[in-house]
Amino acid sequence: MSCRRLFRVALVLGGACLVQVALAQSSAVQTPASGTHPSPQPAASTPGGKVLFSRTLNDDGETVTTGEGAALPTSRTASSLPPAATDAERNSVAYSSFDLDVHLRPAQHYLAVRALVTVRNSGSAPLAHLPLQLSSTLAWQQIRIADRDVAFTQSLLNSDTDHTGQLNEATIPLAQPLAPGASLQLDVTYAGRIEQTARRLLAIGTPDNVAQSSDWDRIASGFTGLRGFGNVVWYPVSSAPAILGDGARVFDEIGRHKLGISGAHLRLSLTIETTAAEAAAGQSPDIALVDGLPISLSVTQSSDPTIPSLAIGRLDSATLGFETLNLFVAARTAHKLPATTLWSTPASEPNVEDWSEAAAAVLPFLQGWLGKTPHAQLTILELPEAYDIPFEAGAMLATPVRAASADALNNVLAHALTHAWVMSRRAWLSEGVAHFMGTLWMEKERGREQALAMLADSRQALALAEPASPGESDGQPLLTAISPVYYRTKAAYVLWMLRSLVTDETLSAALRAYNPDADTTPQYFERLLENAGQRRNLQWFFDDWVYRDRGLPDFALDNVFTAPTALSGSYLVAVSLSNNGYAGAEVPVQVISDLASVTQRVVVAGRAKATVRILLQGQPTEVRVNDGTIPEPDASIHVKQLATVPTAPPQTR
Question: Whole-number mean pLDDT of the chain?
């Protein structure tokens, strides 16, 4: 497996904080030589029914359909006709609201849902069919439109956006095609079992322990974790099938899904049935989180051991950010930490104090940058196994609560706690600022060089992802980026560059003033920065780095000329440089002598040249262009030794 693919796998299946662990563990993953994806079979316990249509991808990325297939759960309204939905139709279905009534029976791994979902045709052509998808272990039971049952077909699609490697798709033929821009509300019910499975990862040769620690989603006594699309599809979605190993299609599909539901309205009612045996074993739920938000549970105990107790919670209104719709329920003990509530298992109690000290250590630093009071408390929920890969959603981090060094825990908390302050529906601000603050914490603790080295760890992946020129591909503007290498790595670089453009004080003021409810236009954050400081016009920078994707700058140090001045021991140094990329940047130019070092910054537009003149005390010995804060395709620091550079008068352009 290539390093680039391994990097993407770790980012999606792993967590933002501890992704290095996932990279190390995944080094043994092998792709089958044929490049094909073995079709996983449904569990033997799946109820009856017959697949009349199956769908997969061949080696060329083309859609292949077949007839007789595996067993599917039956439905009262499913017809026997093959579905007729196309990928164009799947990609045109956008979801603007979810109203979910969710019932869980953890002892049986069982989920039952009635959902009111509003879909919109985001495409340019009328929709003749509505495709809706769930995990392959869930069955569509009823679909209603305008209070009337509608007929639909069910089929299995091979897709690694679910941990089973397959999706159960219901296709609804519409009597009246849905016009572009038009919306429709659906009333759907579905049910089934969700148990832990690493089927999709095992199919591509992932070692069992790595697969299990990556795909830990389940409904089970004491812990339910459903991360949503990309891990387990427990709510209705519409997506084109994608297979691991087929380039970045799975990861791009996950990003498109997050972007597509960002801004959608969410309401959820939750009912959890707990048996007497679960209660006796200490597995009654204490905490529930929906979309990363804690919801209170009201518990009704049953005196009859044959009747389950009920825990009921409700989320009345929320707006989804750039994240999948996720649901967690667990039996845990709450611990109050600085700006944080940590929910742990009894086995991890000895580690809680170390986590509390880490939160206390980074809190003043974050308050100095982001403001005294966060917008929310960070919630840390302990995962069941010690090596489960972390997952974050908004101000929630699901992770093992392991013993670790103070440095490691401080790094984790610096990133995670940032989400309690910056709660944006824009991924480049939500994830980018958290990654940025992690590098600033490293700068504070270990120095600027170590911080830039941390940032540079992902620069090569960014360079590989970026188009060499704007004409080669559309790239991913930060405003609509769907890949972590853009909305984490590139966004962090952008914030580092803004530090130099507007000063730390101005950037801090803009981050403190940020209001996600007011962020309704693309220019919102640019205006915050311009108004927070010296009202410097930043449109050129945001045009190249945020609103559009012009790739990366590519600087070259063309010529250096030095000449002594009338001032004793001083020299005038003229540095000519060019930018062979298409994105402009304000690049630092540093001239060094044995007596002094002087740095000036110069804006070099894309495909342009510039000359900067610097007065320096002492004979110049070295020139540096870029200091690592501006990402380039190859090196991010250009050095020229001046021992052999001829002395000549500065050239005038």
Answer: 88
